Amino acid sequence: DANQDDIPVKSRKLQEIHPIEKEEILQELEKIVEKKEKLEISEKEENLDSGMEILDQLQSIFKSYPLWTANLPYTSFLTLKFNAISNRGTVTGGAGFIGSHTVVELLEAGHHVTVIDDCSNTAPPARVGGIPPSLERVQQIVGPLMAKRLKFVLGDVTDPQDLDFAFGLKKKHAVIHFAGLKAVGESKEKPLSYYRVNQGGSVALLEAMERANCTNIIFSSSATVYQPAKTIDDLPLSEDSPTGGTTNPYARSKLHVEEILADACVANSNLSVVNLRYFNPVGAHESGLIGEDPRGIPNNLMPYVSQVAIGRRPHLNVFGSDYQTHDGTGMRDYIHVVDLAKGHLAAMRRFNSHTKSRGFESYNLGTGQGTSVLELVKAFREASGKEIPTVFTERRAGDVAWLWCAPNKALKDLDWKATRDISDMCRDMWRFQFRSMNPSGYVTDNSEERESNMSSEISDDDLDESKRSDSGLSSDEDNATILPKLKFTMSPAKSIFHRYLNKLTSSKKHHGL
Ligand SMILES: O=c1ccn([C@@H]2O[C@H](COP(=O)(O)OP(=O)(O)O[C@H]3O[C@H](CO)[C@@H](O)[C@H](O)[C@H]3O)[C@@H](O)[C@H]2O)c(=O)[nH]1
After folding, report:
1. Bridge partners, 359 (sequence order)
2. Which atom of ligand 1 is nearest to 403's Cα?
3. Which residues form the NAD-dependent epimerase/dehydratase domain (predicted)?
4. Which of 50, 208, 449, 494 is the most buried (most CB within 10 A)?
5. Distance of CA 211 to the CA centre of its chain
6. 474 vs 14, 160, 205, 306, 496, CA distance in Å?
């Protein structure tokens, strides 16, 4: 039924699902239950991986058909059991841009997550004991069932007591360490702050992990640790490409933490470190509910372009037009933040009990594709339908002509690759840009700065008109008090089901069933 495919799966009721499909899904559910029973699920480590896989399969069904799976007699029973087998982890800096997107992926995969964040670079909770607005949005995205698995600690990653508190109560399976300062320019003005938070925080965290007997950590590193490519022949950058020759305290702090982690692995043979080198993370969650909300004038290209498109800035300064690239502007490996977040979930596989790989291992997370400044601007014009005036200026000090990676190692070891392209990145960023302009957007402390930097007033009509055009949002979605319903552009039921079946077959092979 062609019409049926147009309805988002999430909002379809049982009676709207084709009877044959329904029957197939029910049979699959029965099989999962049988398989699960055989596992004698407990909190024992060896059962965690198999349990997680089953959970994964179930989640895709629950997520696709919440309206009717909620009524199945064994749903609550299964949920209870799965609560007992999911992994627990701590995410530092989980309220920030990449952190919040990763928390969505972790919760959706069934993990229990404790976030520790001092909210120094995101809006803090509105009340004592509350959670930051970015994580409230995360809860809306994942729904009430998964939201319960999120805990928040307002704390400082350099403070041992705060860390012990975050690690407290239940044993944690793994840590994902995002917390850190990240502005290249600022790092030259305040190098000591960068070393205190980035190095000091990482050392404090490793010590807290030792106290809590946690041996798995994923670290947010950066492409900036690589030596700048002198010629195009130095590209793409692989994990073996030379590092060092860094030009600022931010880059040095990332490289130092990599070295600290590698040393810690030498000293403790149980430690497992997955070091992820991000290329240029951009975009936002497809719901438009979470994204990057930089303070002040954005340093980075995509947030700047987005603010020009919405009228907050008059034009984009294009830094340099005489690079040795096809159009003279700098080229980067932009990666959608949701792909990046999924990369963290994939990295968690290295911690599975029966396949656990110990020691320090680095992975590039990028698409392997270079995009120039002018190409990105063009894609953003297409996504937004807005003019984006550009002015060519001098090169920015410290910028390189090109930077892109070879992401093959992550594909080989982690079974991960980026699937979203530059137009997806622009579309989702544009969607989030609208939301953050709305009264229901993130509560930020830079609203005054925003007002004064408005290059032109945007009328409500203008916003409404653009929203109706191609941003995928309808005009009733910017209600100030009630947050908009999520509209996922999920695949139709049939393809979800097939994906699920493929997964089931491959996991059967994996377990020799
Ligand atoms: O207003 C602007 C901003 C940027 N650019 C250009 O856009 C490209 C991308 O710049 P930007 O978005 O600032 O990213 P990078 O300079 O590549 O740095 C990012 O990517 C690094 C990893 O490669 C991280 O370490 C840094 O923290 C992060 O800011 C470069 O060619 C810039 O010259 C402009 O032309 N105009």
Report:
1. 272
2. 23
3. 91-366
4. 208
5. 28
6. 26, 47, 44, 20, 25
- Does the C-beta of 330 come closer than 6 Å to ligand 1? yes
Mean pLDDT of 60-68: 55
Pocket test for ligand 1, best of 301, 315, 422 (most atoms within 8 A of CB): 301
Alpha carbons 57 and 88: distance in angstroms, whole number: 19
Pocket test for ligand 1, best of 278, 399, 426 (most atoms within 8 A of CB): 399
* Mean predicted lDDT score pLDDT of the chain: 77
Residue 500 designated active-site: no
For 501-513, what is the HEC assignment? HHHHHHHHHHCCC
Model confidence at 261: pLDDT above 80: yes
Tell me the ipTM for this assembly. Answer: 0.96
Instruction: Determine contact, residues 194/253, Cβ cutoff 8 Å.
Output: yes
* Residue nearest (by alpha carbon) to ligand 1 atom 25: 224
Confidence of residue 27 (pLDDT cuts 50, 70, 90): low
Q: Which residue has the higher pLDDT, 74 or 188?
A: 188
Tokens of 162: 């705060």
Ligand 1 pocket member 224 (CB < 6 A): yes
- Alpha helix segments (H runs only) across 213-267: 249-267
Q: Is the CB of 392 under 6 A from ligand 1?
A: no
Could you read off the pLDDT of 305-334 as tens digits, one per residue? 999 999 999 999 999 999 999 999 999 999
Tokens of 104: 């969505």
Residue whose CA lies nearest to ligand 1 atom number 35? 318
Residue 363: its pLDDT value, please? 98
366 CB within 6 A, ligand 1: no
Is the CB of 318 within 6 Å of ligand 1?
yes
Task: Give 450-457 contacts, CB < 8 A, sequence gap 24+.
Answer: 450/312, 453/297, 453/312, 453/313, 454/311, 454/312, 455/311, 455/312, 455/313, 455/314, 456/311, 456/314, 457/311
